[in-house]
Amino acid sequence: MIKAGVIGAGGYAGINLISLLLRHPEVELSWVVSEEAHKGKKLDELFPHLTNICDLACGTLDDVKKLAKNVDVVFLALPHGIALDYVPDILAVGAKVVDLGADYRFDDEAVFKKWYGIEHKDKKVFAEAVFGLPELYREKIKKARLIGNPGCYPTASILGITPLAKKGLIDNTSIIVDAKSGVSGAGRSAKVAMLYCERNEGIKAYSVTNHRHMGEIEYQVARASGDQGTRVTFVPHLVPQSRGILTSIYAKLTNNEQRTTNNLMEIYKDFYKGEPFVRIYETPCTKNVWYTNYCDIGVEVNRATGMVIVTSAIDNLIKGAAGQAVQNMNLIFGYSETAGLDKIGVYP
């Protein structure tokens, strides 16, 4: 049994993480930290669905250094740029760290600064972080003490693209990712653009040429394939649903005449053979992965155009955030990778 602490308990990713940890068979949730306005308030007061389940009182960021001494792992679910001030101190007292934010997702400082506009204060800590996508970096994750949990869009996109890019089956300069996310991906803070009347019955593209997750996708696909010329066009959209991400990925096949849908489906099944949270079948749908840690992937070939179309679906708050964080924790501490995550999706 290990003890865990959660920083960022007031957000959507944070509260989903807390829910997963509370039912994990090998974890004791010891403390939670939230924003200053939540100081001293109990979780079931902020989130009534936790009534008679969890009444831990919220601490604040001022308490982190002291609280970290009493746990084995700390999860941070914070906006980018904040974790940098706390992670080195947490590691110094011996706790492992899984950061759900963006601060430790890159191992190249120049690339991180390009996309986020800030520099790391502790270069040594930055250099040892491991990108927390188990399907690609499982063995490194097992030995890590600091995990940079991937973003939600990148998780769906990287898992969808990598089998093709790594095997040289596509032109890596032709990758287009059309991604659609439920509104919870924008976070829990109050914003006019997220009001019901603004988002209901409408779909909207945003950050069409400069979304920060484009850099994360491009960087990881280039790394997996060994092709530094990889270029990704990434266009995210908000859709009027609470949760879920569907990506439609398009790329030019390098040898179209020898590729069929069935052929590529078998390649994907072989690539992800034995992966507990990747499922390959025709036409994934976000409804099939709600509240689960699955990434569902489908692939089809358009012989007339020489294009391959990959679709991938995840729950942005689970496989795209909290569930993947727990999956990484399981690997670090030697638990079954599916512990606390073996949940069947809600249907209908």
Automatic annotation (TrEMBL):
PROSITE patterns: ARGC. Its EC number is 1.2.1.38. It holds the Pfam family Semialdhyde_dhC_1. Keywords: Amino-acid biosynthesis, Arginine biosynthesis, Cytoplasm, NADP, Oxidoreductase. InterPro entries: AGPR, AGPR_AS, AGPR_dimerisation_dom, AGPR_type-1, NAD(P)-bd_dom_sf, Semialdehyde_DH_NAD-bd. Pathway: Amino-acid biosynthesis; L-arginine biosynthesis; N(2)-acetyl-L-ornithine from L-glutamate: step 3/4. It comes from the Bacteria. One of its GO terms (biological process) is L-arginine biosynthetic process. Signal peptide: none annotated. Coiled coil: none annotated. It catalyses: N-acetyl-L-glutamate 5-semialdehyde + phosphate + NADP(+) = N-acetyl-L-glutamyl 5-phosphate + NADPH + H(+). GO terms for cellular component: cytoplasm. Residues 3-144 form the Semialdehyde dehydrogenase NAD-binding domain. It is an enzyme of class 1 (oxidoreductase). GO terms for molecular function: N-acetyl-gamma-glutamyl-phosphate reductase activity; NAD binding; NADP+ binding. The active site is at C152. It is found in: Cytoplasm. HAMAP family: ArgC_type1 (MF_00150). Belongs to the NAGSA dehydrogenase family. Type 1 subfamily. Catalyzes the NADPH-dependent reduction of N-acetyl-5-glutamyl phosphate to yield N-acetyl-L-glutamate 5-semialdehyde. This is N-acetyl-gamma-glutamyl-phosphate reductase. It comes from Candidatus Saganbacteria bacterium CG08_land_8_20_14_0_20_45_16. The gene is argC.
